[in-house]
Amino acid sequence: MSKAVFSGDVIVSGGGLAGLTLALALHRAGLAVAVVDALALDARTAPAFDGRASALAYTSWRVLEAVGAADHLQPHARRIEDILVVDSRPLDGLKRGGPGPDQLHFDRREIHPEDDGEPLGWMAENRHTRLALARAADTAGLTVFAPARVTGMEDLGARARVTLDDGRMLEAAMVAACDGKASPLREQAVIRTFGRRYNQDALVLTVEHERDHQGVAYEVFMPAGPFAILPLPGKRSSLVWTERTAAAHALETMDEAGFQEALEARFGDFLGAVRPVSQRWRYPLGLRMAERFHAPRLALVGDAARAIHPIAGQGFNLGIRDAAALADGVVEAKRAGLDIGSEAVLGRYDRWRRTDSAALALGTDAINALFANDHAMIRTVRGLGLSMVDRIPAARRFFMRTAGGETGDLPALLRGEPLSL
Ligand SMILES: Cc1cc2nc3c(=O)[nH]c(=O)nc-3n(C[C@H](O)[C@H](O)[C@H](O)COP(=O)(O)OP(=O)(O)OC[C@H]3O[C@@H](n4cnc5c(N)ncnc54)[C@H](O)[C@@H]3O)c2cc1C
């Protein structure tokens, strides 16, 4: 039997957004960690690889600060100061130069009143977030194997062994599957998933507009799904334009003049002239949740544990919360001299994260069903609902704190406290 090329505390399979966040949190706390990714960093951060930009909740930003990635990301990120939620119909609402009456306004000063207080969140293109995490990993001296694909994991009793496609082996007390929504390690551990494919795809692109967005994020509910305008640095916004699958495909493949016309009709002119400045990407949408988040010596993290509808911009935020909760338990166990891959440690992580995940997975599913409905009575009721919440300051603050990730039992990293042994 050949010798393992790495023998330590934790092996992270998947150096995506969730995997690198977890690996950095553990490495900086003093654990011996190795990350494996199937793709080289250049491939994962190439402009065409991922067109998405993510809304990062303010507690997620605290985690990126604690793991040393926020400084690298800040020049490429934009604070979200306000969020406007609008219930609209095609060619309505924003088209007339601003949101209509059935709207809900979240203002960060209601929960963080200081002039330089925390924003509601930050917007950053995923490729910049990946690069910032990779730079932090480099600075911290994290061990990374890439490109290398994990082909299997074996439970050796007191340790776990991971095999790579080039035959190399790694050993550790536990393995974190951060290998995305199709998670090969989850499949290998025979953890079932449930969920469904929505008849919706998200078209994603970056646009430039004449006027400054002033850090306002817009979520416009349309009958086919939400249309989000999310502020990026400069006079640029990232669009998440949800349509039925066939319509999204048509938009994706439309010629430039036709697409410009469709864009203007949907976006309106409230930020002046608007034009695409990126290619168009299309993401099929679905809900997938693992029936459990752990197996012997294995923890599921990020999209490997659950992938949800982007309607609330929470997918990666949930992955960050997974990473923070798992790191909390693992560091505490290591400090106490306990087995970090034991059932006690991984079972606690599972219980902690599955409740929050189920609530958000079902919540986003229900909101999507409620708003992607053009029935006149339902429109009236949800318009009333938005206006009611808009009039109740305590309700607005509750929603802002929930979206910001500041609910329930917060792991130390979400409170902005670094971990150490
Ligand atoms: C349209 C859209 C908009 C979104 N907007 C937001 C938002 O605003 N805010 C938000 O929080 N979330 C958002 N999300 C969700 C977010 O993008 C995902 O939750 C996040 O990218 C998942 O990251 P991850 O690290 O878990 O998985 P991934 O990014 O899929 O990373 C998995 C990694 O594992 C590697 N890998 C896979 N198999 C192997 C293997 N066998 N061996 C080694 N490596 C392997 C891959 O190469 C990859 O690097 C959005 C999603 C969509 C579709």
TrEMBL record:
GO biological process: ubiquinone biosynthetic process
Listed NCBIfam families: Ubi-OHases (TIGR01988)
A GO CC annotation given for this chain: ubiquinone biosynthesis complex
Pathway(s) where this gene product acts: Cofactor biosynthesis; ubiquinone biosynthesis
Molecular-function annotations in GO: FAD binding; monooxygenase activity; oxidoreductase activity, acting on paired donors, with incorporation or reduction of molecular oxygen
Family to which this protein belongs: Belongs to the UbiH/COQ6 family.
Pfam short name (any one): FAD_binding_3
PROSITE patterns found in the cross-reference section: UBIH
InterPro entries: FAD-bd, FAD/NAD-bd_sf, Ubi_Hdrlase_CS, UbiH/COQ6, UbiH/COQ6_monooxygenase
Protein name as annotated: FAD-binding protein
Signal peptide: none
Cofactor: FAD
Keywords: FAD, Flavoprotein, Monooxygenase, Oxidoreductase
Annotated FAD-binding domain residues: 9-335
